[in-house]
Amino acid sequence: MIRFSRWRTQHHESGVELSEQNGVRALHLGSSMIQSAMRLTAPNDLELAYTRCMMGFLLFHPDPANILMVGLGGGSLAKFVYHQMSQTKTTVIEIDPQIAMTARNYFSLPADDERLQVVIAEGGEYVASHPASADVLMIDGFDDGRQVDTLCSQDFYNRAREALTRNGVLVINLLSRDKGHAEYMRRIQHSFNGHVVTFLTEIRGNQIVFAFKHSPGKLAWEELKQRAEKLESEFALPFSEFVKGLHKHNPHNGGYLEV
Hints:
CATH superfamily: Vaccinia Virus protein VP39
Radius of gyration: 18 Å
Number of helices: 8
Number of domains: 1
CATH class: Alpha Beta
CATH architecture: 3-Layer(aba) Sandwich
Number of strands: 16
Structural class: alpha/beta
Order of helices and strands: EEEEHEHEHEHEEEHEHEEEHHEE
Helix content: 25-40%
Low-confidence stretches: 7-13
Largest sheet: 7 strands, mixed
CATH topology: Rossmann fold
């Protein structure tokens, strides 16, 4: 028998809803679309495929000191980094205090400490006011199935590049079926001088974008495969599949990924 329940948290006007099915708790924001999910028996694992794919940045930047995330949801990525990467400090920008409260009360998000801080602010404004502050900047901001306008403008992507440290990486979760998708990609390519690679988590599904402040140069596929094997043993995520996705969806010359 499948147990299914759905309820609103205390503040109905925020549109925050929770559901549970087959031992997985999900967060919904104003629609039936799942924004975040947590398996109750493994609360610190990455339940949704796109969140696992976003961690693919480790292939390019394996030891970030500072990660800046825009969009908290249930806090899946923040929790994973907190529990798996003890040398990394994470700052999460979330515009809705009710979402932050829900993540703490229902999704096992740890309290703020020296390695994790949740800031209630508008993501675009925060990014613009913190240049050269993040080794990795992760953007996961949706409004009813579309990118939040302030998080996909040309100016925002310009500011995102400025917010990165010299070898920094921007990681974006896009929906490939979003009508604005092609324009978002043009803007990212423009802001990052073409130093961009992508792969799809599934057909017509999420597209994960990695944009580099400076080109990492030609990356040998064999080197990426070796990195993937090492990371898989450390984090138990399918990094070898990420490399296959990069190979499938990006231009490459012989044995190299050109960024």
